[in-house]
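Project channel, design review

CF: Before we commit to the Streptomyces antimicrobicus constructs, I'd like one complete example in the thread so the newer folks can see what an input/output pair looks like. Taking Helix-turn-helix domain-containing protein.
RD: sounds good, go ahead.
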Amino acid sequence: MTEREAARTLPHPEPADIRLEGVLHALSDPVRLVIVRELADSEDELSCSHFELPVTKSTTTHHFRVLRECGVVRQTYRGTAKMNGLRRTDLDTLFPGLLDSVLTAAAAEEARLAP
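CF: and here is what came back for Helix-turn-helix domain-containing protein:
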């Protein structure tokens, strides 16, 4: 790995270091939950610029960092784009049913609150 490649590699927790309280914290924010729902609905990784969020760019960066540091998403650089993928396999192995339950509950809440 070149020095430049190493500088563009983002730290991610190993599966053994992912904690339930961190995942729940990451999923407790409505903006982060929107990100996770979109990633769960996509078969591909999505760039940060794909998301239309009601917050500033710096706040968006913060939300992605929280998701990455808690082990919910994996971020990788592809050229100048930062790509995001849901760590579904890791989360399902560590906390069976949690992600699906949260996504189902979020969809039910959205339907309940819709005008």
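RD: helpful, thanks. The first strand starts at residue 46 and ends at 47.
CF: The CA atoms of residues 11 and 69 lie 8 Å apart.
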